[in-house]
Design goal:
Structural class: alpha/beta
Bound molecules: inosinic acid
Strand content: 15-25%
Number of helices: 5
């Protein structure tokens, strides 16, 4: 079965490819000749995942899944949430996003946060949603060099350091995206 992962991020694609059973042939947007910029205009993670998956299925006719992730900070009413990539404005920049968040929480004791990933799967004219949550706290200072985005200031619950101090294999086991993808894969393998 052919299945498109609606992403331009080759790292994510390779990561998922390794986890899928042999009967699923994972295709990238490039593989199907989709070079358009699919605009994420929804105000929820689920909405954006649906926009991307539906664009591919409706335009190219493939079964497809798409993901969208946000960092939700409790004392900021869930911000930056769906706007995580461009929290500090355009052009999107991880350093500016982190600085803006650290400033917003400067005198705040409640630093609880969670990463949430939503995956939308279009399979044989049906739609399925999966989500993955990783709870943690926002640190006061950056810690570690690995990863991307907000990793240096996010410490997952039950772990001694930030995501940016963890090996990717270690992070994948507990991360929002890892958990959502595990749910997707269990579903696809049981279908
Ligand atoms: P995307 O939907 O995976 O592109 O994620 C949107 C934004 O959320 C990214 O641009 C990052 O700022 C942030 N983000 C998503 N996943 C992670 C993560 O695992 N660590 C740190 N930041 C992340």
């Amino acid at each position: 079965m052919q299945l498109v992962f609606a992403t331009n991020n080759l790292n994510k694609l390779e990561e998922v490819k390794k986890l899928l059973p042999d009967f699923i042939e994972l295709l990238s947007l490039k593989d199907i000749g989709c070079f358009e910029d699919i605009e994420e205009t929804a105000n929820t993670l689920e909405g954006n995942a649906k926009i991307k998956a539906n664009y591919v299925t409706n335009t190219y006719g493939y079964n497809c899944f798409a993901d969208d992730t946000g960092l939700e900070v409790a004392s900021l009413d869930g911000a930056p949430g769906v706007y995580s990539a461009r929290y500090a404005g355009e052009p999107a920049n991880a350093e500016n996003n982190m600085q803006k968040l650290l400033l917003a929480l400067e005198n705040n004791k409640d630093r609880k946060a969670q990463f949430r990933t939503s995956i939308c799967l279009n399979l044989d004219n049906k739609q399925f949603l999966f989500d993955g949550i990783c709870k943690g706290t926002i640190l006061k200072d950056k810690q570690g060099e690995k990863g991307f985005g907000y990793d240096p200031i996010f410490q997952p619950e039950g772990h001694p350091g930030s995501f940016a101090t963890m090996k990717l294999s270690e992070k994948n086991l507990i991360s929002h995206r890892g958990l959502a993808i595990q749910k997707l894969i269990s579903f696809l393998t049981s279908e």
